[in-house]
């Protein structure tokens, strides 16, 4: 056996292992460092968005560095310079925040956060980011029998990303704390640098005499502008579609923990498949299946949403997403250039990914009041199907005339017919028929995309009318909407009322009649746990100092009394604007005229309050259906009791469809030797807008909570004990352990 054949598999294993390791480290570092930042900055989505922009920007810079290094320097100089960069990056280990770093409290912390990320993880993340294109470029020059087409190694990189993505929440996070995670990551980074050095040594040892000829191959002509623009669009649309779908399913389907993993898993899996040897066979099949699946998808997801369980609805959207990214990424893989332009190809892909992230993070929230970038990118993905160039050279008026006419007719009907919803069934049937018609244009991407887009646009408009949405707006914190609904009142008569929604979760409601508008409803009703609490302490609470974390519609303030001091903590300024707008809700204007409102992350705001200030602290902070984890840790609980008076009460709202939050608080109460009671309230009789809800009250001593037990208005019970999980801390949380 020759030396060449003897080392063939070893070379593939070395280079593929290097790419696998770098991708794994990248996808572990992002959630790891996010958890390190959490207690310092809170759980604001703006923090996560800023981190994502940093990661995508450094990834682009890493690809740019790899491109410049591999195209402008000889191999020996490449290895020398990259070795220096790797050595310097070790100064950032072990991973930690810079000493004495404190975020600004009087200004926006965005630039502080970017600078902190740069100092703490900038260099290691830069080295990890540059590995994929640089190592693949080296493999193209190492003289292996597959060096002419090293793109299949990209599958190893994305497999590493995929495994790390799934391992972090299900294996790493439940098993070890942040300190151990940081130590293991540093060891993994050392291994990566050793593997990169081994790749460089193999490149030097096996450098081929024919490399220059390969670089000057006539097949390696520079790709023209249109080709590079096509690469950009084929990478941009799936990147934006990924984030759009993630937002959509978390906002409009269900706020199930870790749901974002599913679209990202599909996205990474598509790269593994299309850059493998299977793509030539699979790509035509994916193109056909996308067109076939689109018709039922549009019908059931946009025109006539079926009354499906959330998991079935989720499968519908994920399958549509899978076909869309498989077609786009399949086209991208089929158009990959000669290895001479490998790093430019990856550079454009990373730039497109960064643009997709920036569009969804910074542009879409300011131009759309809903998650409309998601259907927009569904249409864009159809436009990028095979045959786009031929379609563009056909009569554009014929391809876009029918869609334009549909939109004009739809807008005319909306303007001219006052009771459009009387014809709802006819409109839905017409849109279904048009959706079936789109299938005939599947070979003409422009017509296919334009007609599908017009159908989705009209469907969204019709459903917007039918939901009786009075107001809808979007911020970094999600989509907020105020809707008008109808209930059957005590006299068996229909009565309109207003509801506040964050995503799919109701965050408050108010009846509109003057005699009923001061009654707290939903989770805060008088028969429920909060009504019982204020009733039990009726004789002792005249001068209480009360803090409420999470404003909602402001219903809790209608328990306030003239001698009390109330402070309302709310992270989203738009929630305050809605609660103060009497056209939507009047709780604050009627019941809390003197209440102070503090805008910002509650944990950070409470840290600035005097110790022993509060008699009652109510934790009611939710993002859709989820309580931010940094408000549930042991350190957070210690902070709350530091701000409570010795006989103060902490009330925690834990109503949740997916998480057993009582397990976390029960373990904290046991560990910190606190007294705790729970009530899982279910109304005995059907009353308007009185709903089932779960609350926990915690105090330093059992005697403090005795009035609740004596009052006998509710079924308050001692907290059950749990021994199957560790206490949550700023160093350790585990969402998986509390799934219902």
Share of β-strand residues: 5-15%
CATH superfamily of the largest domain: Vaccinia Virus protein VP39
The level 1 CATH classification of the largest domain is Alpha Beta
Query: By helix and strand content, what is the structural category?
Result: alpha/beta
State the major sheet.
8 strands, mixed
Architecture of the largest domain, CATH level 2?
3-Layer(aba) Sandwich
Would you write up a description of this structure?
- The chain is of the alpha/beta class and 740 residues long.
- The chain starts with a helix and ends in a 22-residue tail after the last strand.
- The strands form 2 sheets. Strands 7-6-5-8-9-11-10-12 form an 8-stranded mixed sheet, sandwiched between helices. Strands 1-2-3-4 form a 4-stranded antiparallel sheet, sandwiched between helices.
- Residues 1-6 and 208-216 have low confidence and may be disordered.
- A hairpin with a 2-residue loop joins strand 3 and strand 4.
- Helices cover 56% and strands 11% of the residues.
- The longest helix is centred in the N-terminal third of the chain and has 34 residues, at 8-41.
- It is globular and about 85 Å long.
- The protein has 3 domains: 1-208, MFS general substrate transporter like domains (Growth Hormone, Chain: A); 390-466; 500-738, Vaccinia Virus protein VP39 (Rossmann fold).
- It has 25 helices and 12 strands.
- The protein has helices at residues 3-6, 8-41, 45-72, 75-89, 110-140, 154-175, 178-205, 211-215, 225-253, 261-274, 279-303, 310-334, 342-367, 373-383, 388-392, 396-416, 424-438, 445-466, 529-536, 573-580, 587-591, 602-607, 634-643, 661-671, 702-711, and strands spanning 469-475, 478-488, 494-502, 505-511, 545-549, 565-570, 596-599, 614-619, 644-653, 675-681, 693-699, 717-718.
- 44% of the residues are buried.
